[in-house]
Amino acid sequence: MASFSYWNNYKIQNPAKAAEIESLGLNFSFLPDKEVKEKIFALETTARDSNCSISELKDKVFAPLKGKIEEGDYLYLMEFYDKKTFSEAEKYNIERANTIWMIVEGWILEKVEEIERKYSYLPPRSKKDPQTLLIQFRLEGSNEFGIHRKMHIYLKKYPLTKRNRDYVKIIEDMLDGYLESQIKPYANNEKNKDNSTLFNLALSSLAYMSCDKLKKEIDDLDALIKECNDHDVSFYAELDLASDRIVSKYSI
After folding, report:
1. With the CA atoms of 138, 141, 143 and 147 taken in that order, what torsion angle do they form, in degrees rounded to the nearest 10?
2. CB 180 within 8 Å of CB 242
3. What three-state secondary structure class fits 129?
């Protein structure tokens, strides 16, 4: 006779609680018994300590945030909650992946994806493929959560916080100003425009060389990259975007 899984047994013995768990969007049907047991323990313990039902836990997480933070802030909560998983795992002797804070991270990710759907009509900030961006972000020294945030920002159209929007404007102005100074003299010389194909090709090459020149002229490039990381801005991605803008501006 086939034996029931821990989750199936739990649903039989605690149908009301199981329904509450499922109402939170959690599906334990295909998880190993140990994982299910620890997740249920985390949910039941948190509900008891919070003096609420299991089905109210998600609202307990989001209620204090409504009207207090902007859209761009939700992505940062994942790292905040992830740090909490260590103490909870140690306190209850369970895996970090099964703590209440890891479950909360999943709810925050759902909120992040909901926000991104609002901006699905917009083009991604970067046109590069995910693997190229991932390598780029790693080379810039971002930690795993920084890389995660950058991927959402540059590929999935997640909005920047006001602090980071203000910072990226500073970076854009700096890059655009430099490339403009390097390319404008060539672009405004009418003698260079006899052949549009050759002109545009030369323009792209000049933009590429100007980007390379800028990287060598910046006094402390590593410090600037780190500063960009602190704002979840990719220096190299922004440099690519600035290059695209200047080429598009002067192409014929």
Report:
1. -40
2. no
3. coil
